[in-house]
């Protein structure tokens, strides 16, 4: 399913860590890897942009993409290299959309550390904007990157975006010969005060099981057998997902960028952002088409 992979790189140790996984994916799926460096000419970190500054940035970019391409060629992987100028997240998202990639792979942070690539920066903005699924990897010591994937987890709340993530997750499980796990988390803190909490919780649990049954049926129709369908109560959705990852030896989690309560729930300070920041395994984020996000229903 991954025939064309985009890998943006700044030549950092974080990018090199993520590129190891890109090479493994490309080798398994016989994919072409497009290696992109964006010379940041917006002035973020450069006091004054001059012609020789831009030339220097582009020369450095050429060196970075050439070194990455050479590493890929050693594994027999075809590459395309590109150096562009502009604001990195815009150029990455536009390049991904223009060329119709199957996947974008990025480290969560690189040359300047965590603060650069999250909280309004390159990685987080690409996750928000790209129509292409984005695979993010934390280049940290506590991260486990295993390939081929053996176990793939898809959390779901039944929203359109979660269903989109399910479709991608099923494709990945099929292409990787991996086992698919489905999870629905009921946030206890979201229940609020209620005169009949047992009834409310019972209804929520019934609904969650129905969502998982539908998700399992979708996977079965796609020829994918699900290993588990789990409903969990937890005070924190993202922590419940992290616990499930550890308990079931999950290698990849596939999640939508937003859910039933709209885009803001799942990005800025929310489930997907926390997963991207803290997951001990790669996170594949899937953004639903723009038309599906405007009413906040998914």
Automatic annotation (TrEMBL):
<feature type="domain" description="UspA">
    <location>
        <begin position="1"/>
        <end position="138"/>
    </location>
</feature>
<dbReference type="InterPro" id="IPR014729">
    <property type="entry name" value="Rossmann-like_a/b/a_fold"/>
</dbReference>
<feature type="domain" description="UspA">
    <location>
        <begin position="149"/>
        <end position="287"/>
    </location>
</feature>
<protein>
    <submittedName>
        <fullName>Universal stress protein</fullName>
    </submittedName>
</protein>
<dbReference type="Pfam" id="PF00582">
    <property type="entry name" value="Usp"/>
</dbReference>
<comment type="similarity">
    <text>Belongs to the universal stress protein A family.</text>
</comment>
<dbReference type="InterPro" id="IPR006015">
    <property type="entry name" value="Universal_stress_UspA"/>
</dbReference>
<dbReference type="InterPro" id="IPR006016">
    <property type="entry name" value="UspA"/>
</dbReference>
């Amino acid at each position: 399913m991954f025939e064309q992979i985009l890998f943006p790189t700044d030549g950092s140790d974080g990018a090199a860590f993520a590129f190891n996984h890109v090479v493994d994916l490309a080798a398994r799926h016989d994919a072409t890897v497009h290696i992109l460096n964006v010379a940041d000419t917006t002035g973020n970190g450069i006091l004054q942009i001059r012609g020789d500054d831009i030339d220097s940035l582009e020369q450095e970019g050429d060196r970075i993409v050439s070194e990455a391409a050479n590493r890929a060629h050693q594994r027999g992987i075809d590459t395309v290299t590109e150096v562009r100028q502009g604001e990195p997240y815009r150029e990455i998202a536009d390049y991904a959309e223009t060329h119709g990639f199957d996947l974008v792979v990025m480290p969560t942070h690189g040359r300047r550390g965590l603060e650069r690539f999250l909280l309004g920066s390159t990685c987080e903005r690409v996750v928000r904007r790209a129509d292409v699924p984005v695979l993010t990897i934390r280049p940290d010591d506590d991260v486990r990157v295993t390939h081929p994937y053996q176990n793939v987890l898809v959390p779901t709340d039944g929203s359109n975006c979660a269903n989109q993530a399910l479709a991608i997750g099923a494709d990945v499980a099929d292409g990787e010969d991996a086992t698919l796990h489905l999870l629905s988390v009921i946030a206890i803190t979201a229940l609020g005060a209620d005169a009949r909490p047992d009834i409310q919780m019972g209804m929520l649990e019934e609904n969650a099981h129905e969502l998982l049954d539908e998700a399992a049926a979708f996977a079965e129709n796609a020829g994918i057998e699900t290993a588990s369908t789990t409903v969990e109560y937890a005070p924190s959705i993202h922590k419940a997902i992290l616990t499930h990852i550890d308990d079931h030896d999950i290698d990849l989690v596939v999640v939508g960028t937003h859910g039933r309560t709209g885009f803001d729930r799942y990005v800025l300070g929310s489930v997907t952002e926390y997963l991207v920041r803290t997951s001990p395994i790669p996170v594949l984020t899937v953004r639903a088409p723009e038309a599906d996000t405007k009413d906040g229903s998914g």
